[in-house]
What we know:
The protein is α/β, with parallel strands linked by helices. It has one domain (2-132): P-loop containing nucleotide triphosphate hydrolases (Rossmann fold, 3-Layer(aba) Sandwich), CATH 3.40.50. The protein has five helices and five strands; from the N terminus they run βαβααβαββα. Strands 2-3-1-4-5 form a five-stranded parallel β-sheet, sandwiched between helices.
Amino acid sequence: MLVGRPAAGKAELALALAQRLPDLRLLDRAVVEGALFEPSDDSAAERSIAFSAVLDAARYHLGRGRLVAVETSGRRGEGDAMRAVADDAGAFVATIQCAPADAEPADDYLTLDMTGPVDEAVELALGYIDEMGQ
């Protein structure tokens, strides 16, 4: 899961990861929400419906052995829902937070400052993904 505030660098990281991982499927909750509800009123119901659609797509791809990157804001409960989908598919979740350099890192996810070189962030992300997959 790629989480963070809008314009934190999630999309940039996702696209760079997709270049390195050709089988990667990118699922962006905001893009799905826009496709379903544009113009959106940014309601909790719209976000929930869009994330449910993303989870269904993730379930589909993971069930076929594909890699999935879910791009979202990281609202409460989304990580648990994604982990449940991954567990059902026999997959794992590596949560990467795109945040400013002064963000407080946590032990249960990788925090990346996307204001630096993208290649460095990609290398860190790939290392973390490999670590979480073992």
